[in-house]
Amino acid sequence: MNMQIIRALVKRDLKTVFQSKAVLMPLIIVPLIMFVAMPLLMIYLPDMMSVSGTSMSNMDEYMQMMPPGMLAELSGYTVEQQPIVIMLIYFLAPMFLILPIMVASVIAADSFAGEKERKTMEALLYTPATDLELFTAKMLSAWLPALAVALLGFVIYAVVCNVAGWHIMGRIFFPNLMWIVLILWVVPPAAGLGLGSMVLVSRRMKTFQEAYQMGGMVVLPVLLLILTQAFGVMYFSTLVAALLGLALWLVDGVLIWLGVKSFQRGELIAQL
Amino acid sequence: MAECVIDCTNLTRKFGELTAVDSLSLQVQAGEIFGFLGHNGAGKTTTVRLLNGILNANAGEVRVLGLDPAIDGAELRRRSGVLTESPSLDERLTAREMLEIYARVFGLDEKRARSRTVELLEAFELLDRADEKLAGFSKGMKQRMALVRALLHSPEVLYLDEPSAGLDPVSTRGLHDLILKLSREEGRTIFLCTHNLMEAQKLCDRVGVMEHGKLIALGTPAELSHRLVHGAKVEIEVQKEQAAAAQEVIRNQCQLFSEPGQNGTLVVTALHHEKIPAVLAALVQAKVNVYRVAAQEPTLEDAYFALHAADRE
User: Fold this and answer.
1) Superfamily for B4-89+137-220?
2) CB contacts < 8 A (A, B)
3) How far apart are CA B313 and CA B307, in angstroms?
């Protein structure tokens, strides 16, 4: 593989993608909601709920639904601290995965289907880049920004959680080991999932919007994870994060294999 | 003898039931300007794609610059440049950004990519717009930008698909001068796909005409014109009042068809050179005053239409 070609193509895709407002807006708004607004809401919500006088008994009922593993994890925290730990550490963990999936999907939709829409693919096909180099460059141009945004989001989230939660927690409580596993082991293949599924979807779609809307369905498994945890079926432990990461890497492997197989000049030119 | 740059034998490509390129055999020599003519859908673009390893052939042999496009496609594309029918520009980038990136993809080092970009932008009078987004460029400027991109890596073979589409007459002349310079002075091989028959006649050493995927004629423009068009078109200027009488003489005595041209002229088609004196003698004998006789050699355009008329029959 020729790294000069790949670097040049990644630069091209990134420069092109970040000129688009349709791509940039979700990349700015979603992290702001998820990493600033949501933790603040989670931290101050229990205070507001306690004013009504019913929240603590509801919380007790809720705690009884939780799996024993989570109860054990919470045993070291006070009653006031437990809701914050549940919300910020466990409930938002699967939700966090939406971010790399979404960023990778948006960029991949612009990079694969958007390229068809803008009629810029043909010139690329006449370059010395091999099919694999073109595919690799396109994957990296979506995957690297997704990781960067997720990492940046994680840092902002950690700061917001610890600063805003200081008056209740009295110490730095975030991140725990599960979150480290999440960021290092689960986020990269989660971005790959958004990307890989978009590559397949983009084969059939002619515009960025079509591809993005269809590819959005890939967040459904994440919603399932969120609901499963909300109903106490399981909780997002370090082991669950590790297993989820493993499963995602395997799915990514299949998606990349399918993507490489389908990303061939002859096929691509026929779709123009 | 010049090196054969493009050499294909019985090249065939099918899309389902449709045979887009049908047993094409063709040789193009180094430094030659080869015109590839044909209607839309005749198989020209598919041929260019086959020659660049974008598509693989179903049958036949092909070598370009001695390389097999199906195997050495990447190396071949490093040595070829293609101007596609639509400019296919990254319109969100500036002219400079797009060219520098493509120069890197074509293997130029960073310093050379920058200097080559400036050199070509200057040559094509686009340097003052170098840092503007391509989306704001006019159609003609976009076409020039696409050509600049195809020339970045100084390709040995240049495929031009309708290069003058969207260009004004001054830019078209500039383009023609450039094509001639690339071929005559720099020895580059030009494969020119065009509908513009005047352009092909002016520029091409040889032309091939495609129809339904088959190469139906091949030769120099002059050869094709003489082979396919029988006789010249002769314009005879006679006294205005005698035009009808002259037409009668030409029809009855010479068994030729004529039609009125401009300012009292008659245009006789399919008239062989050796018959011109006999026609003039008949007119003089009938006391028709002849002021001027001008024979027009058949053009590539005449040949092209004769070819397609024959094909339809």
Assistant:
1) P-loop containing nucleotide triphosphate hydrolases (3.40.50.300)
2) 80
3) 10
* DSSP track, B29-41: ETT-EEEEEE-TT
* Best of A23, A125, A263 to mutate (most B CBs within 10 Å, chain B): A125
> Which of B90, B134, B195 has the alpha carbon at shortest distance from A127?
B90
Q: Give the residues across from B265 on adjacent strands.
A: B237
Q: Are the beta carbons of B308 and B197 closer than 8 angstroms?
A: no
Which CATH topology does B230-297 take? Alpha-Beta Plaits (3.30.70)
Distance CA A155, CA A127 (A): 40
Contact: B92, A15; criterion CB under 8 Å: yes
Choose among A11, A125, A128: nearest Cβ to B78.
A128
Spatial contact of B219 and B227, defined as CB atoms under 8 Å apart: yes
Q: Which ipTM did the prediction report?
A: 0.85
B51 touching chain A per CB within 8 A: no
- Of the candidates A8, A20, A128, the beta carbon closest to that of B74 is on A128
Domain ranges of chain B: 4-89+137-220, 230-297
The minimum CA-CA distance between A270 and chain B, rounded to whole Å, is 9
Residue to test with chain A: of B105, B142, B161, most A Cβ within 10 A: B105
Distance in angstroms (rounded) separating the CA atoms of residues A147 and A121:
26
Task: Count CB-CB contacts under 10 A for residue A21.
Answer: 7
Distance from A139 to chain B by nearest Cα, in Å? Answer: 17
Q: Do A12 and B90 touch (CB under 8 A)?
A: yes
Asked whether the beta carbons of A27 and A35 are under 8 A apart, the reply is no
Per-residue pLDDT of chain A (272 residues; tens, 9 = 90+): 899 999 999 999 999 988 888 788 888 888 888 888 988 888 887 666 655 554 556 667 777 777 777 888 888 888 888 888 888 888 888 888 988 998 898 888 888 888 888 889 999 999 999 999 999 999 999 999 999 999 999 999 999 999 988 988 899 998 999 999 999 999 999 999 999 888 888 877 778 777 777 777 777 888 888 888 877 777 888 999 999 999 999 999 999 999 999 888 988 888 77
Identity at A194, one-letter amino acid code: G
> What's CA B37's distance to the chain center, in Å?
6
β-pair type (B206-211, B33-38)? parallel
The reply to whether B52 touches chain A by the CB within 8 Å rule is: yes
Please tell me the total number of residues recorded for chain A in this structure: 272
Residues in chain B: 313
Residue numbers in A near B101 (CB within 8 A): 8-9, 11-12, 15
